[in-house]
Amino acid sequence: MKTLIVGANGKIGKHLVRKIVENGQEARAMIRKEEQASYFEDLGAETVVVDLEDSVESIQKAVEGVDAVVFTAGSGPNTGKDKTILIDLDGAVKTVEAARAANVERFVLVSSFDTSREAIVEAPSSFSPYVAAKRYADVALRNSGLSYTIVHPGILTNDDATGKVSAAEKVQRGEVPREDVAEVLYQTLQTSSTIGKAFQVVSGDTPVKEAVESL
Question: Residues in domain NAD(P)-binding (predicted)?
Answer without folding.
Answer: 7-190
